[in-house]
Structures are given as C-alpha cells and as structure tokens.
Amino acid sequence: MQYKVSIEAPCPLACSRTWRDACGVFGIYAPGQDVARLAYFGIFALQHRGQESAGIAVGDGRSLECKKEMGLVTQVFDEATLAQLQGDVALGHVRYSTTGSEMIENAQPMLGEHRSGPFAIAHNGNLINAKALRDKMAARGMRFETTSDTEVIVQLIAQSGADSIEEAVADMMSQAKGAYSLGIVTPTKLLAVRDPNGVRPLAIGRYNEGSWAIASETCALNTINASFVREVEPGEIVILDKDGLNSIQALAPARKAVCIFEFIYFARPDSHIYGKSVYMSRVQMGHMLAQQAPAEADMVIGIPETGIPHAIGFAQVSGIPFGEGFIKNRYIHRTFIAPGQKLRELGVRMKLRPLRESIAGKRLVVVDDSIVRGTTTGPEIELLREAGAREVHLRINCPPLKWPCFYGIDTSARSELIGSRLTVPEICEHVGADSLAYLNIKNLITAVGLPKSNFCTACFDNQYPIPIPPDVKVTKFDLETQPAEAGSE
Hints:
- There is one protein chain.
- The longest helix has 15 residues, at about 280-290.
- This protein has 18 helices and 24 strands.
- By secondary structure, the chain is of the alpha+beta class.
- The strands form 6 sheets. An 8-stranded mixed sheet has the order 1-4-3-5-2-11-10-12.
- Helix 5 packs across helix 6 and helix 9 packs antiparallel against helix 16 (about 440-450).
- It folds into 2 domains: about 5-255, Aminohydrolase, N-terminal nucleophile (Ntn) domain (Glutamine Phosphoribosylpyrophosphate, subunit 1, domain 1, 4-Layer Sandwich), CATH 3.60.20; about 270-450 and about 460-475, Rossmann fold.
C-alpha cells in the first residue's frame, strides 16, 4: 500500500439530531501551498453540514496520508497534526451519518487502491442501490470493513479494470444509483464528481494561478479567498492537476434535482447555489409566507440560526417589527445534544434561552425553517410561554414534511415525520401554538426563483426524481395508511 492513515477513538458524546445534515466535501490542488491548512479552513467553513467526524487526506506526489477522527474539526486537528500532512493536493470531509453507523471506521475520506495507485474519497449523498451492489460484490468474495455506502463506491473504483482513475470513476458511475457528490484525491490530482441528477451541490473555485478548489458550498471557497468558477455539472468528472481543469462527461445529465432543503436549511446563508443567494432566497420565503399566512402580532422572531433570515423577510412584508426572542448558546454544538426525547428537550433549554424582557406580554410570530418530528418545536414554544409571551403564532417556511429522504438526509421513517401522522391543526395543538401555517410549495419555489423541475421536492410531494427500489423504500415507508401528499395546504 502507498498510503498511511491515522484513526483515533470515537468521541463518547456523539449523538443524533432531529434533522441530520448532508456531509461536507472540500478539496484543494495547490502545489507549493499549505494544502492541509487550506483544507482545514475549508471543512471548518462546512462544519454545519456534519459534526460527527472530520478528516483530511493529502497527496505528496507519491503517496497519500490521511488523518480522521470522530468529533468537530477543531477537535480533530491541531498545529502538530496539520504539520504532518505535507503535499500539493488535499481532500477534507465532515460527516453526519445517513447510511452506516456512527463509528470511526465510517469516517472519511475513505481510502482505496486502484491499479493506477492509491486514492481517497469524500462523499456527500446516499446510494439507493448500495445494498444490491454490496451483496453482489460480497458474493464474489469481497469483504467490507465498514457499514457505509461510501465503501461501496471505493470498491467499485478499486475493482475496475480501467487503466486510469478517471476511467475507473466512470465505471463506478455507470453502476451507482442515487445521490453522490464526490471529491477524489490521488497523490497527484483532485477529482470532483456529481451524479446525473446533481442532487447534492458541488462547486469549483480558482485559488490562484495553477491552483483549484472544490467545495460542497461556495462559502468554503470564500473562506480561502478562492473565486467561484462554476458548479460541477450533473454526470461530470472534473480533473484538477498540473494540466489545469479538464472535464469528462461520464454520464448524460438527467433532470436536475438539487435538494430544495439546501435553500431552506442545509446550506450556509452566505452560499450560492445555481447562482442564487441562499440568504436572499430565505428572505424571499419569509416574504411569501407573510403574504400567504399573515398574523396579528407585536413582534416577529426567528428560531436561531436558520429561522432568522426567514423571519426578517416575514417582518419586512408584514410590517411587524423584527426582534430577538431567543439567545443561542453558541458553545453547544449539535454533536453534543444527547439522544432520547427527555434529554433532547433538556438540550433545547441548554441551546436556547428566551429573552424575557423582549417578549413578555407580546403576541409573537415565531418563524422556523421546518418541523420534522415536532420534538423540539413544542419545548421551544413552552420556553416562550414561560417567558411571558401572550400569543405564539408559528410560521414554517416550507410545506409539511411527509415523505422520507433516500438521497443523503436522515429523516428516518414516515411514522417519525409529524407531517405524515397529523393534520396541520393537529400539529398546531401538539406543539402548543395559537396558530400554525406552512409555506406552500408553489410559493417556496417562487421564492427561490428557479423552475420546480430543477429541484428534488420528494419530502413534500412524494415525487422522487431517482426511482427508489422497493426493498429500500419499505425501510422508511412504514405507515399503514398513505395520507394526502404535501404541498396542498
């Protein structure tokens, strides 16, 4: 083998969250630069996309060295660790598990060996045919060391008979189905790969002359002062090396289907997707929601952090003053909120504290990005009541979530989605609000400003752009009855 890997023990405080984020990928090809440190800055900017584990792989022209651990970026890397990672090309990853359990073996980048040499992969997404591919390879005697679908991708590339890594990746793409935005690093080059539907974002940036970067979000490119060039196209392999930027269209693009929740929740507000500002899209969602579902109130507040741009937009159109209702403890990271409903409710109190002096005696419009299970919304409203809020009118900047995601977001089974089990009035009563309204899907799409055909909205309307195999679908479609599709409220 031509690579080394350092793997440390898991963090004992790792946990689950109501709405698990997509992972974050960052790569840099910059000969003569401190690429490990640049990758560190890149994945630090993407920390919101995954707080379970972090890793960086570096190529020095001959071999790969990889360091990864459970925990946050600042917990995994320090000056001494970064100094050991020397080379011209690097690939970083932050992870929240959607397939594969929370254990160090599933941390990324994940290493492999092709006939052309060693490589490492960082993956954002989820394969819907991972089990079928895994079973097929296992029947041929292949042994798997992890429970992650990323290892399936690694093995498809490793077993390819192609002469080059690019051809091996193309072979993999012809077999893999689902969502995958990949960074792939070898000792000498960086590859960026996107599935034919482009479900998860992946951007290319120019760092300086002869240097390039890739990132799940443009905010990471901004962090290292790289200029945005373009997005990786669906079905494309982009090669970044001494010859500059080259491209292979490995698969014909299918209907674009970027996850709409990138605009609602996942992406940082200072990122751009499809040329659209995430922040301004969220403000526009607030505008549309204020027109669609007005309320008589004294103040508009947002649930930190992602609800704030939505709330600002609502306030601008409604004419109701925007104010702060909650103070967020910024030292409470998602990774350290313990699992289980009782402890999750305590976690809400640790993370958010109401501003009594701001909200006592007032009628509030409380704006949030979404309600998934409904397990944290109720405690948040209870906190506002305890602080003296006279009325709480809840406004949500997307339709009810009724259908699970199979493309890289852990929304679990339909029975756990409150929008699948209860009507809007029932949800309102369940969480203890005085009124509740959701932004409908038409207004959501209008706010983003791109055609609906550009997005995956399956969590709202059951219209999956990539067909889900029956054996995979049954793992999450566990309701005895099928309620009306979302987006009709």
